[in-house]
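Notes from hallway chat w/ T.B., transcribed later so I don't forget. T.B. wanted the structure written out for a chain they're using in a teaching module, and asked if we could keep both sequence and structure tokens in one place. Agreed to drop them here.
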Amino acid sequence: MNRPRLDLHLRLSQPIGTVRATALRRGLTRVAAGEPVQYVLGEWDFRGLTLTVDRRALIPRPETELLVDLVLGAQALWRQEQPQVVDVGTGSGCIALSLAQERPQARITAVDTSAAALELARENATRCGLADRVTFHEESGCGTFQAGSIDAIVSNPPYIASGVVPTLDRWIYEHEPLAALDGGPDGLTCIRAITRDAAMVLKQGGWLFYEIGDDQGPAVRELLESHGFADVRIGHDWAGQVRFATARMRGL
């Protein structure tokens, strides 16, 4: 009906017509069969942005909004005139586009190994009027950037152990892209690779922000510290579960 959700109670007596009723029944059938409602609707809101969502990328989740909050909370980062920020594994583009929207002075680069996901992210950049604020690259990790050139790296990487992936809820396992979920035997394969690259391309004092699994706090802390990162902090989501890791590149 193209109305905000809270307005619907004012229109309960308004007929929706045969076409809309048929579309609603089709959508309900898909949801009942286990398809995520976000994919059925074809769009979802993330930090005030309405994004196209489909099987090319993971569905944007509330926990990832908190990851963006952590990046925005790094006040020293945003005191720079044009901070260089890289979103590794951008997927739908939700992180990169949120940062571009809320910190227009930043130079945002979004990378992903999936050409299909990058296509979706570009579509969302255009949809949100942010296409001129984000640069997109198809590549693995962030190791191709010049050494010591990046101010911050943020990533919601695949972090679920391979053996756990098949046990996920069916609406996740059967519909969302498995490559964006499977983090290798212990869930840390991508985090190790990004951390190794980040240690080379971040400036001294540069920031690294991760979304991680709820059982990965100690392992990620050890990994970051062994690669020269300091001020390592493990954060929690709204449910009190370990969900984030932040650190800064130690200076000489």
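Follow-up for T.B.: The radius of gyration is 19 Å. Might be a good example for the class.
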